UniProtKB/TrEMBL annotation:
Transmembrane spans: 6-24
Annotated signal peptide: none
Protein name (record): Uncharacterized protein
Domain Glucose-methanol-choline oxidoreductase N-terminal as annotated: residue spans: 58-353
Keywords: Membrane, Transmembrane, Transmembrane helix
Family: Belongs to the GMC oxidoreductase family.
InterPro entries: FAD/NAD-bd_sf (IPR036188), GMC_OxRdtase (IPR012132), GMC_OxRdtase_N (IPR000172), GMC_OxRtase_C (IPR007867)
Ranges where the Glucose-methanol-choline oxidoreductase C-terminal domain occurs: 466-607
Tree of life domain: Eukaryota
Any one Pfam family match given in the protein's UniProt record, by short name: GMC_oxred_N
């Protein structure tokens, strides 16, 4: 007789097992055949593993070896006389994570901070506990190591607006040189563009795999009247094949780009698994003096002579500030954090680019978007031996482009971003996506299970300039507990309006000749809780958004940059924390307004720019020459 478990173990569990096995096979094969990607001797090493000790003090301590932090550590240690310590809570990047399609392996594991928002009936109703999942990298390179790597800088006007708010030095004209400084554009046709740089640390390439379906999607895009162009160039109005921070087709995090080449600098120490608790600020002189962190069970106090730069990301930078006595005085007192060094609106102004997603169109053509196309041994051998094939692409974002809603500020300032995705929540049958994004069973089973494994496409159609503002607060004085996150999505009616318009885009695309030809059909299963509403009506779309929206995890704004006259500002336009000496913040949290694009490229720019400001302030520009090698 056939044992009962054989019948009841669902396909998804077997596939999941296969996925895990595949991971280990891949890791093993990469060590065998791709020592260039494993790069065992070129990686960044922890100072204690190198047999060294913390020094008596450092000129600069950078907290967080993330997207911006790696840039800052590199640029500051260019000055030979400066001793720099870089502290990172996570460990080194994984080998498998260098393969673009394996990006999800960084999620929901030890390399992910795994934040969840506080429950709110206004959103994430279809997610377990009603809490949205927020991802952020806890690994060398930070979120640049787990991201989809799509390089989008934002609109010129985003930066001009920052300048208009009183942030001198942050207009588009001012920041463009910093985008170009770190860039090594490797795509033919863009190398000569006045908007791109060559020879910098970060290599930009096209992904080496785009699903065959993308051709149809781009034909549809052209039918709708959009131009194909470099959306990081003269104008944002149009679409392009995504390009990203890739090197020879593999991931190029900021750790790979900025730290590995300078790992032997004698004045740069990197300490991994070092969870920073707080910065000790002298209450009389209000000067940052020591950084306190816990590493492998031991607590360290390391002193700093010049400055601490906090680059711990949009959630953790405000957390560290608050634990150091910098934040809303009332809140800090309630938690017993004394003394309050500087009463500032740390944790406010939280913004996120949320997307209408999960509106799925099935197609009749076999277009290589399902799980088994990715987890195939032919894909593995293509990757290993030719650096090509299905594993070298990120199907969630094969194409990217912009659209203006009916309430956009001006025609050259679009407020919706679309990712074109030849895959969807159903295409891998609930093996990865459902589990990662914690869909409730009832939601998944109702909406996606009936079309599981079918070839499909969707767009992630995202609100670029939200008017709603969220905030975060400490849960406790215990630095290992995550802050409480209140995104307050869609509390402004304009956000709902733009998102509903955005959500209609994939429907328009599905009706183009190019997509009708391959039988594009809307998933007929209505969203859970929205069955009573007319399919695709405004009310239905709003309801579907409140059941399930996708964050691109490009949040920003919690340590707002602004002039001294701005009561909400936490840092000044040179990113110095108000009311404290020797303390700056440099990461996505300083953005006064989130930008019309992705946050990754701007974080590199912010790292470059703050480094130059620091060098200026300490009159060290003279010494800016790099070490060789
Ligand atoms: C899955 C995913 C995909 C994404 N894809 C894209 C994309 O394709 N394009 C795009 O533009 N944007 C993308 N983003 C967003 C973008 O990558 C991030 O906004 C950006 O990288 C944030 O950079 P950061 O410097 O602010 O922080 P991070 O890069 O997150 O760096 C913070 C660092 O500080 C460390 N740290 C935090 N707290 C402490 C502590 N207490 N002690 C010590 N160290 C600490 C963290 O471990 C981390 O290394 C994506 C985000 C995610 C999660
Ligand atoms: C990968 O590259 C090899 C060798 O250059 C080529 O023969 C093969 O067709 C390529 N495969 C794909 C899927 O592009
Ligand atoms: C902080 O929280 C962690 C996780 O809950 C716990 O293990 C630890 O004991 C707490 N520390 C203190 C000082 O309470
Ligand atoms: C760095 O120094 C060189 C001269 O060595 C100078 O030309 C360059 O402008 C400096 N860079 C910056 C960003 O100031």
């Amino acid at each position: 007789m056939i044992p009962a478990w054989l019948v009841t173990v669902p396909t998804t569990a077997l596939l999941f097992l296969f996925y895990v096995t595949f991971y280990h096979d891949m890791e093993f094969a990469m060590w065998m055949y791709r020592p260039d990607i494993v790069d065992a001797n070129g990686r960044v090493r922890d100072l204690q593993e190198l047999g060294r000790h913390f020094r008596d003090g450092y000129d600069f301590i950078v907290v967080g070896a993330g997207t911006a932090g790696c840039v800052v550590a590199n640029r500051l240690s260019e000055v030979k006389g400066w001793k720099v310590l870089l502290l990172e809570a996570g460990r080194d990047e994984t080998v498998v994570g260098e393969v673009p399609a394996m990006m999800t392996t960084y999620q929901t594991t030890t390399t992910d901070w795994m934040y969840k928002t506080e429950p709110d009936p206004g959103y994430c109703r279809g997610i377990d506990d009603g809490r949205c999942i927020w991802r952020s990298g806890k690994v060398l390179g930070g979120t640049s190591t787990m991201s989809a790597m799509v390089y989008t800088r934002g609109n010129k006007r985003d930066y001009d607006k920052w300048k208009c708010m009183g942030n001198d030095g942050w207009s588009y004209k001012d920041v463009l040189p910093y985008f170009k400084k770190s860039e090594d554009m490797r795509i033919d046709g863009l190398r000569d563009s006045p908007y791109h740089g060559i020879g910098g640390y970060v290599t930009l390439e096209e992904y080496r795999y785009y699903s065959p379906l993308i051709k149809y999607l781009f034909k549809g895009i052209e039918e709708l009247g959009y131009t194909l162009r470099d959306i990081n160039g003269e104008s944002q109005n149009g679409f392009m094949h995504s390009y990203g921070t890739l090197r020879n087709g593999f991931r190029c995090s900021t750790a790979k780009a900025f730290l590995r080449p300078v790992r032997d600098r004698p004045n740069l120490d990197v300490s991994l698994e070092s969870h920073v608790e707080s910065v000790i600020i002298d209450p009389l002189s209000k000067t940052a003096g020591e950084v306190v962190f816990v590493k492998r069970g031991y607590r360290y106090h390391v002193s700093v002579h010049k400055e601490v730069i906090i680059s711990a990301g949009v959630i953790n930078s405000p957390q560290i500030l608050m634990l150091s006595g910098v934040g809303p005085a009332k809140h800090l007192k309630e938690l017993g954090i004394y003394p309050v060094i500087s009463d500032l609106k740390v944790g406010d102004n939280l913004q996120d680019n949320i997307c209408a997603s999960g509106i799925v169109y099935t197609v009749d053509a076999p277009v290589g978007t399902t799980l088994l196309n990715f987890l195939s041994f032919s894909g593995l051998s293509d990757m290993l031996f030719n650096s090509n094939g299905t594993l070298m692409g990120i199907p969630a974002a094969h194409g990217v482009g912009f659209q203006s809603s009916s309430i956009a500020d001006s025609p050259d300032y679009p407020d919706i971003k679309h990712y074109l995705a030849p895959m969807a929540e159903n295409t891998e049958g609930g093996v990865i996506f459902k589990y990662m994004n914690r869909f409730t069973d009832s939601f998944y089973n109702k909406v996606y299970k009936p079309i599981a494994f079918k070839d499909s496409f969707m767009t992630w159609s995202c609100l670029m300039r939200p008017k709603s503002r969220g905030y975060l607060r400490l849960r406790s004085r215990n630095s290992t507990l995550h802050p409480m996150i209140y995104p307050k999505y869609m509390t402004h009616p304009d956000d709902v309006k733009v998102l509903v318009e955005a959500a209609r885009f994939s429907g328009k695309l599905s009706k183009t000749f190019a997509l009708r030809k391959i039988g594009a059909k809307l998933n007929p299963n209505k969203f859970l809780g929205c069955e009573h509403l007319e399919m695709m009506s405004d009310e239905y779309l709003e309801c579907s958004l409140r059941t399930y929206l996708m964050s691109l995890w490009q949040f920003a704004g919690t340590c707002k940059m602004g002039p001294a006259t701005d009561p909400d500002a936490v840092v000044d336009p040179r990113l110095r924390v108000y009311g404290v000496r020797g303390l700056r913040v440099a990461d996505a949290s300083i953005m006064p307004n989130i930008i019309t694009g992705g946050t990754y490229a701007p974080c590199i720019m912010i790292g470059e720019k703050v480094s130059d400001m620091i060098k200026d302030d300490w009159h060290q520009h003279f010494y800016n020459q790099s070490f060789s090698g």
